[in-house]
Amino acid sequence: MLYESLEIVREQVANYLNETGLGENMVVLDNIAQFIDNPNTDNQSLDNKIVLSLLNMEEETAMKNLKNTVTQNGNHIYKNNPINLNLYLLFICNRTDYAFSLRSLSGIIEFFQGKKLFTQTNTTFSRSNEAMQAITNFKFTVELYTPTFEELNYIWGTLGGKSYPSALYKLNLVSLEREHILGSRAPIATLGGTLNHIN
Predict the structure, then answer these.
(1) pLDDT tens-digit readout, 30-54
(2) How do strand 83-94 and strand 166-176 relate by DSSP bridges?
């Protein structure tokens, strides 16, 4: 659900920018560091675009120790807990005109101000590729994350040193789980043994 979550966000933001007249198909999911490191290579797919890059991720440890058992056909199925991740998404406005980059950045902020919760019931998305067709249930929130100047300097230094108008968002709780069963057993239905009365 890692790629799928980013693709849903990318498409939703792109649709909003298109509706507000800021351009059609403006948001691409790609690694901005490759563009910054190699500006002379053929990067037409990122020219005059808004690039969405996964900057970092962290495990949500508060949900790490929950039991992960389900009951199927009268048996208890035991699995490892899913990995719950918070993702840090960087929107970089690489538009040809600086003023247009700022307008695009404003549009991104407006979109997330109006929509913070994403679920299968309030989000319509394209199922044009195989990964997106398999999505059934999802729920995550997106909130603006403001790094300090020191963190911002470190981020752009890591990405190649060149700064662009950008916004950093934290996407909360993407759950990843492999279909791997640790064990299965029937539930305890009766207790046996003898109870002795104590005087």
Answers:
(1) 988 877 666 555 566 788 899 999 9
(2) antiparallel
What is the distance of C-alpha 179 from the center of its chain? Answer: 20
Give residue for tokens 């700022």. 102
Whose structure tokens read 């994403």?
118
pLDDT at 186: 60
pTM for this model (two decimals): 0.80
What is the Cα–Cα distance from 174 to 161, expressed in whole angstroms?
30
Continuous segment of H or E residues that includes residue 9? helix 2-19
The answer to whether residue 198 scores a pLDDT higher than 80 is: no
pLDDT band at residue 68, thresholds of 50, 70 and 90? low
The SS3 assignment for 198 reads: coil
- Alpha carbons 157 and 98: distance in angstroms, whole number: 21
Phi and psi at residue 8, to the nearest 5°: -60, -45
> What are the tokens at 132?
């997106």
* pLDDT score for 195: 63
Return the residue matching tokens 């060149």. 162
Q: Which residue has the tokens 């791997």?
A: 180
pLDDT bucket at 69, cuts 50 / 70 / 90: low
Where on the phi/psi map is residue 68: left (φ > 0), alpha (ψ -120 to 50), or beta?
A: beta
d(CA 65, CA 122): 30
